[in-house]
Amino acid sequence: MRDGPDSPPSTTRTHGVLATAGRRLEGRWQDGAAWRVLCEEVVRCWRDVDDVAWVLLSPRGAIGSVPPDPGTADRGVVWGASTDEFTWSDSPVDEELWQRCDAAAGALLGDAGVAPVDPAAVPPGDADRTAGWLAVSVDCAGQAGLVLLLGLSRPPAEPSAIDALGAELEQLAALLAPLLGQRRRLVDVATENGALRSECETLSRLGELRTRLAAVTAHELKTPLTSITAYAEVLEQRADDPTFTYGSEFLAVIRGEADRLLRLVDRLLDSTRRGRGQALAESAAVAVGPLVDEIVRTMAPQASARNLHLVARIPTDLPAIEGDDDLVRQVLVNLVGNAIKFTPAGGRVVVAAREDTAMVRLAVTDNGEGIPPREMRAIFQSFYRTRSAREIEGVGLGLSIVKEITNLHGGHLDVSSRVGRGTTFTVLLPKEQHHRELVPGEALGDIDPGRRQRMASLSLRLIAELAAARGVALLLPDGHGDRRRGVASMGLGREALDLIANGGDGIHRTLVDGPRLARMPASLREMASGGVEGPGSAMLAPLKLGETSGDGIVLVARRHGGGVFGDDDLALLVVLTDVLGNAWTALRDAGGDRERQDRVIEAVSALSGLRRVGVPTTDPLAMRLLARTGRRLGLSSYEIRLLQYAGALHDAGMLILDPEVLHKPDELDTDERDHVGGHPERGLEMLGPLVDVPELQMIIRHHHERVDGLGYPDGRRGAAIPIGSRIIAVVDAFFAMIHSRPWRDGVPVATAVDELRRNVGTQFDGDVVAAFVAVLRDEGLVPIENESRPIESPSGR
Amino acid sequence: MNQRILIVDDEAPVATLLEHTLRDEGYEVAVATDGMDAMNRVHAFRPDVVIMDIMMPRLDGVQTTRLLRRNRSFADTVIIALSARTDQAVREAMNEAGADLYMRKPFTIARLVEHLRNLLDERTRTG
Q1: Is residue A255 in some structural domain?
Q2: Is any Cβ of chain B less than 8 angstroms from the Cβ of A720?
Q3: Residue A72 maps to which CATH number?
Q4: CA distance A431 to A664
């Protein structure tokens, strides 16, 4: 039946589309078939109108997930009079026709309404029968979701005929829009379901890891308990046996094991509080570059559906990280997925990676709405969702999973955000290391292979992070003269192990020559930078392990940020190798006492985080200022060495502070002040095996005292505070003032100096401040005018 | 001749107590501080029973049990696993490796001795 004079009024025809489609579907609009049926009915409705040569529904354009199924994302429904039947074109249609239709659709995007008949734009195929077309876009959530085109078979006789058709098209568009919206929401829900399922899988994976960890922890706790019950049992049985003479001996064993149990529990509590003490069961080298590429590829459709640019910026020579492939993938998927979700259309999401010192830094940056400061602390909690996130589907587990995985890898997660500007999530994951097992020898005594490797791994990390180097190697003696068997390296390539192990290029001379700046052997340079000769500056220092055995060697190369290593870097390295030498010696001398060994390992592990939490005195400049100030105040070279050593370690206690309190921009309450006030002591406890010298312990304990007696922990005054502590207090305060913090910008040096002077007699020692300012002046760090200003007398502050 | 028991445990207090108690019970007892040490001793000592801890350095209890069972001379040796690990995976691994009995730590000596006697009696009857 062709549409003649007795054709039904256009409104009826349009409503007929929905009615017929509804009947066919028996009301099941949410079915997969619904979309197809609807399209068929639209075509059927128009094909009987005389002037219409063809009908096309094109779900092309910025509509992403709207089409009936992803396989036909850029297909649509087309009906042409020449074929006299409509096709669901899931087979490729003539490419040029699609391009023409696309152009027509493009002209309409975001602009609902009817486009005028354009005789010039005639899709081929039906060219002989087409005089022009009419088009309308159907809106969905503010974006064009569907383009409906009518091809006209003859030039319009009169404008009113065209207007009538146009009005009908608009009417149909209005009816279709809600259905399209519904369809879109369904697809969104399906996507969300998929994401939830993968989150669930990751959670159960993490759960498994945690169960395994719990099993090992339970074992640790039961071990002393076993001795206690067994000895108690025998004591009980023999209570009345006069021949049994070991009573007090048994009681001593029980007492000792009970103490051990208590210490274990304490340590366990400490480590859960810090979120450490966990480790991946299995890890392997994960190439980050290909992983990021893959994720960007698979998530690109999701991004373009929201009209976002998703870009990867990965340097070609990025080193591998050490971890679990699947878990690292999950981290990236969650972060990129979040960025896509929270960035408005037209925005940009960048995934970047670069090599840091001991870690590889992965950053996902968006230019979305940002996270308000007051919500920042809560975003990593499970089920927390920001105010704006509540309008977007999800359960709020994504970030807590990211955090958990990062912790599990011994990595670090950071976020920075500015409202209205965007957000960057940064994940630091440890670089791949190469280890060659030591042949057990007397030099390292009773250290078992697992602990030896963990200690070697932490040593590399500590040096890389604190000496700001990307390449580090560690050689350990095996106790048989000069043959060095244990090697570990990071950021130097696997082949470097052999060269270093064989003592290539005179590396072993370090044991005789002592610490020195060096040129990296050309062969090693090539290995380190994948065939391209990199910067050749390096440092070598012996790792002193006491007199009874041979020493180790530390090689540091590839300065972070480029450039050559200088005297300051070397001085810092000497302090670091001192610290590490003590740690290795303590580990060896623990004589197989695993608990003591674990305390050493834990202390070293804590130290490698120092620079990250922003402890300023691990800076080469700070090291130099400490030494020069000490020298000016007449300290001996031994005292200066202690001062630098304390300078590097003294704030380790900060690491166990609650980060929320540590970074709180407001005034602290009493509880929080007590918490912070305890950190010098907590630090000493943690560092125990590394600070076995009483003078050193004193310096660290008292670095937060004030000369007016109002400091902590003991409220000592004036000269009762060790001179080293008084110096560290000034240098610490200086660096804390000039460095920027997340919650405030740093102040100029001159202002910091004024502030130090203003607090002479209350917080600081006048002689120390004077010496320190003189050193700053020598260094050219203080402008001349500051020098002439007299030091103010202590004010009433 | 007295029956011989080899105690394999890296926890000195437990090993020492077991050593003395079992000796008082009339067994001939030797102590190995880990799996590797145990493997070095078994050929000379030829134990009738091995009391095997699981979590040990160098060579753990599962590996040691597996190695022992691979050797025909120790196919009939009674192996009692004694561990604070109670997770199913470890128990299964130990069972598969060829342990005769799994006892969890903490344990009572009385019960250990009872199991020991039963297992040895059974072996004498069937062997």
Answers
A1: no
A2: no
A3: 3.30.450.40
A4: 31
A83 and A165 assigned to the same domain: yes
Nearest to A737 by CA among A757, A721, A758, A751: A751
Domain assignment present for residue B127? The answer is no
Most A CBs within 10 A among B18, B55, B87, hence the mutation to make, goes to B87
Instruction: For CA atoms A300, A303, A304, A310, give the dihedral sign.
Output: negative
Q: Which candidate from B11, B21, B86 shows the least CB-CB separation from A234?
A: B21
Contact B55 A219 (CB under 8 A): yes
Tell me, yes or no, whether A451 and A424 share the same domain: no
- C-alpha separations of B2 from B18, B48, B87 in Å: 16, 10, 35
Question: Do residue A471 and residue A424 come from a single domain?
Answer: no
Amino acid at B29: V
- Angle formed at CA A104 by CA A102 and CA A108, multiple of 5 degrees: 110
Taking the CA atoms of residue A606, residue A609, residue A611 and residue A615 in that order, the dihedral angle to the nearest 10 degrees is -50
Q: Which parts of chain B register pLDDT below 50?
A: none
Half-sphere exposure of A702 (CA within 13 A, CB side): 26
Tell me the C-alpha distance between A643 and A579, whole Å.
Answer: 13
Q: Is B57 on the interface with A (CB under 8 A)?
A: yes
CA-wise closest residue to A244 among A255, A254, A233: A233
* Containing structural domain, residue B30: 4-122
Pick A759 or A61 by higher pLDDT: A759
| Domains in chain B, number | 1
Is B107 in CB contact (< 8 Å) with chain A? yes
- Closest residue in chain B to residue A238, using alpha carbons only: B21
Q: Is there a domain that residue B19 lies in?
A: yes
Q: Which residue has the higher pLDDT, A38 or B33?
A: B33
Pair (A300, A444) in one structural domain: no
pLDDT, residue A505, reads 62
Residues of A in contact with B108 (CB under 8 A): 229-230, 233
Is the confidence metric ipTM above 0.90 for this complex?
A: no
Domain residues for the domain of A290 are 284-430
The CATH number for B108's domain is 3.40.50.2300
Q: Is residue A220 part of a domain?
A: no
